[in-house]
Design a protein that fits this description.
Elements lengths: L9 H36 L4 H50 L2 H4 L4 H8 L1 H31 L4 H48 L1 H6 L3 H27 L1 H25 L5 H42 L21 E8 L9 E8 L4 E6 L5 H7 L8 E6 L2 E2 L5 H6 L1 E4 L8 E2 H5 L8 H10 L3 H7 L4 E2 L8 H15 L3 E5 L7 H14 L4 E5 L3 H4 L4 E6 L2 E6 L1 H7 L1 H10 L2 H5 L2
Parallel strand pairs: 3-10, 3-11, 6-9, 9-10
Antiparallel strand pairs: 1-2, 1-4, 4-5, 7-8, 11-12
Helix pairs in contact: 1-2, 1-5, 1-10, 2-5, 4-6, 5-10, 6-8, 6-9, 6-10, 9-10, 14-16, 19-20
Length: about 575
């Protein structure tokens, strides 16, 4: 919990200092009230004048009003502090996740990252809002009350201290019982979010397979575990309130009982006993405040630790201090002896790859499922770094680029078309927010997405993930988005798979005719998509087993021939 305080801004410490000052003033006011009460009791028992009693009463009213104003001011400042600090934490976590490479993201589940950015931050906000004033008030109040008690009656003071010691031991017991369960609750919350997210995103598949019952059982299993754990924690914490009430009332009764004997022995006056009664209530109330802190502290501590796990994760892909630039080369990609294996893998996915693509060329990558095609593509924008060897873009090692500068050169179209909630225009401008209508029209025309614009218009709504579009529409929108960016190099990761053959052919023809200066890297499964590429790489088990044009590979590469014959007839191949 302490580590997370380094994200406090300096003016937040000023607010904390103000809160401490206000709380101290409030405690001082609360400590004066029993003295005025004792004064009133003394005046009543000694037959003081009505004017004297009213004067003491007005002092109590003024103290109560002052305490009320202090409470309001402290509550306002605490809420401001909690909301501001939560805003900082959410931004820090979000920015950190944005900086993660695919390697770091794979160490956390998506559901866990969402929980850490929302629920965990909320737990810390709640702790600051409710617990901060209590943490300050309780010890000051307890010390102040015990100091006021000291010297007035040793017997009643010892009785009060005994009650306090019992409460402290009881609270510690509850804390150590509940703390491990709070960790479990947060992990189960991650699982609950993950199951819910999977069900919602895969709703069509669930219904298509009549798997609602299976998903319900899966959800119920996690839900029951969350419920049982929360019930255990709530049952343990529910013991606090009644035990505190018993101690508080028992202590009051004990003070009255013992005070009566002391008064009868002339060892105590009735006004001092009245003060002790109020002081004992205050010290118990201060420890009740501490109990409230202990209710929120374990969960906040767990949440803080989970947030620190994200913020403390070291990035494996780090930007250099300066970006190298080679202005004489543009749109060139080169792999030199590149091998790659995933951080948690034992075997190499890519092995000793060597090839070069120059500006304006179209290179295609084909191979069986799991041969490493998409992994190869991920090395160019540094989603991963090569385990061995070097990857060059425009003659410069990609590790010598700042990531933002490198990716400015690239237009990436992922294997799974991802669109964002908003409008058609906002999705097209994702790579260039300053793009004008002429740029959008050109991109839409090349991507064969004109019919989408005719139906929806640029202001048409796009649902989250593009759920209100077909697979082919999403792919064409993703391709148009990359074209709007107008980069040097286009990376198409099996981005034509949802297109019909006619649209596929028209799109590739438009790319060849209107994007001649751009370099294109196309990962594909269909021979028809890549047969006209300037160069085709054939991957098999992470190795390049073929490199050449379509005609050359048909004569020299057995793997390519097998793929071609499995997709096209002999006549189609002869006419290709």
């Amino acid at each position: 919990m302490i580590r997370i305080l380094k994200y406090f801004k300096w003016h937040y410490w000023v607010i904390v200092a103000l809160i401490v000052g206000i709380v101290v003033a409030q405690v001082q006011i609360d400590l004066i009230l029993p003295e005025y009460m004792g004064e009133i009791v003394k005046l009543v028992t000694s037959y003081g004048t009505q004017e004297e009693i009213w004067q003491a009463g007005w002092k109590m009213i003024l103290c109560a009003a002052g305490g009320f104003l202090c409470t309001v001011a402290a509550s306002f400042l605490t809420a401001r502090l909690a909301a501001g600090f939560s805003q900082i934490l959410r931004k820090k976590v979000f920015d950190k996740v944005e900086s993660f490479s695919l390697e770091e993201i794979s160490t956390f589940s998506t559901a866990s990252l969402i929980t850490r950015c929302t629920n965990d931050v909320q737990q810390i906000q709640m702790f600051i809002t409710i617990g901060l004033r209590m943490m300050i008030t309780a010890p000051i109040m307890a010390i102040g009350v015990l100091t006021k008690m000291a010297g007035k009656s040793n017997e009643l003071t010892l009785m009060t201290i005994a009650g306090v010691v019992f409460i402290v031991l009881f609270v510690l017991l509850i804390y150590f019982l509940a703390m491990p369960k709070f960790k479990t609750i947060q992990k189960l919350t991650d699982r609950l979010n993950n199951v819910t997210r999977e069900n919602l995103t895969g709703l069509r598949v669930v219904r298509a397979y009549n798997a609602e019952g299976f998903q319900e059982n899966k959800f119920e299993e996690v839900n029951v575990k969350v419920t049982k754990t929360q019930l255990f924690v709530n049952r343990v914490l529910s013991l606090m309130q009644p035990v505190m009430q018993i101690v508080m009332h028992g202590l009051s009764l004990g003070i009255v009982w013992l005070g009566a004997y002391l008064i009868s022995d002339a060892a105590l006056t009735i006004d001092v006993m009245s003060e002790f009664t109020m002081y004992s209530m205050q010290v118990i109330m201060s420890f009740m405040l501490l109990i409230m802190v202990f209710i929120f502290l374990p969960r906040a501590s767990v949440s803080a630790k989970r947030i620190n796990e994200v913020l403390g994760t070291k990035n494996t892909i780090i930007d250099p201090e300066t970006t190298e630039e080679n202005s004489s080369i543009k749109g060139e990609i080169e792999f030199r002896n590149v091998s790659f294996k995933y951080p948690d893998g034992d075997d190499y996915v890519l092995k000793n790859l060597n090839f070069k693509v120059t500006q304006g060329q179209t290179i295609a990558i084909i191979g069986s499922t799991g041969s490493g095609k998409s992994t190869l593509l991920n090395l160019i924008p540094r989603f991963y770094d090569a385990t061995e060897g070097e990857v060059f873009v425009d003659g410069v090692n990609v590790k010598n680029y700042k990531q933002a500068h490198l990716r400015d050169k690239l237009g990436y179209v992922p294997q799974k078309a991802i669109l964002f909630s908003g409008t058609v225009e906002s999705n097209l401008k994702f790579g260039d927010e300053n793009a004008v209508k002429e740029q959008l029209d050109r991109a839409v025309e090349i991507a064969q997405a004109t019919n989408i614009i005719e139906k929806k218009g640029y202001s048409g709504n796009v649902a989250q993930g593009g759920q209100n579009m077909s697979g082919g529409q999403k792919q064409r929108m993703s391709i148009a988005r990359a074209i709007v960016k107008n980069p040097e190099i286009y990376l198409f990761d099996d981005s034509f798979s949802a297109l019909d053959y006619k649209t596929d052919r028209l799109l590739r023809q438009a790319i060849n005719d209107k994007m001649k200066d751009a370099t294109n890297v196309i990962v594909a499964q269909r021979i028809g998509t890549i047969k006209n590429a300037d160069k085709i790489l054939v991957l098999d088990d992470g190795c390049i087993v073929g490199n050449g044009t379509h005609d050359e590979l048909m004569n020299t590469c057995e793997v390519y021939r097998e793929i071609a014959h499995s997709q096209l007839s002999k006549e189609e191949l002869e006419n290709a």
